[in-house]
Amino acid sequence: xxxxxxxxxxxxxxxxxxxxxxxxxxxxxxxxxxxxxxxxxxxxxxxxxxxxxxxxxxxxxxxxxxxxxxxxxxxxxxxxxxxxxxxxxxxxxxxxxxxxxxxxxxxxxxxxxxxxxxxxxxxxxxxxxxxxxxxxxxxxxxxxxxxxxxxxxxxxxxxxxxxxxxxxxxxxxxxxxxxxxxxxxxxxxxxxxxxxxxxxxxxxxxxxxxxxxxxxxxxxxxxxxxxxxxxxxxxxxxxxxx
Length: 242
Fold this sequence. Notes:
- The protein is mainly α.
- The protein has a domain at 194-241.
- The protein is 59% helix and 0% strand.
- The chain is built from 15 helices and no strands.
- The longest helix has 18 residues, at 93-110.
- The radius of gyration is 57 Å and the shape is extended.
- Keywords: Actin-binding, Repeat.
């Protein structure tokens, strides 16, 4: 009965590109440990070069030292017996520092209420000091000191307005210099002007050649029998090596 079934089981042929076969192959590749570690095995075969002073190694060493309980307690173990024998707490630097820190902390707590409430002061607006400050501000204020005159509006044909316009025209710089407009653009030589004459006079005053005479230009004959010349000759003979 089963002979024919056993014979048919060995003759079954399945196409290799069916979805179920492809899915089975993909699942086999995903769960394959050999394919999972293939890249790691290839990297291990190439080898590596890790120096002792590399940044990852130094970082790992620093992390190990920080996490080490021995390194953590090393400073404490070295200082264990160093402060034994202090006669007073003032001689112990750490105790003095702790006492100073405690005093500062107490002072900060003592003044905390004051610092919290110092900006919450309410002064009455009619207090004597406030009124005096307002009066002083009024006295020194430039706005209250200067009282600007009213801008009067005058008719243009009034006699005083006409007179004022004439006075303004007489005092105006444009009207004052209007008679010199015809001179603008005309050429002029500086020779003989006040500035040029003044510069020449100053040059003559500062000229050393005209101010003093050189000694080599003076006709001078030295007298050989004057006391200073005779004394100079005697001194020269006294200090002469010959």
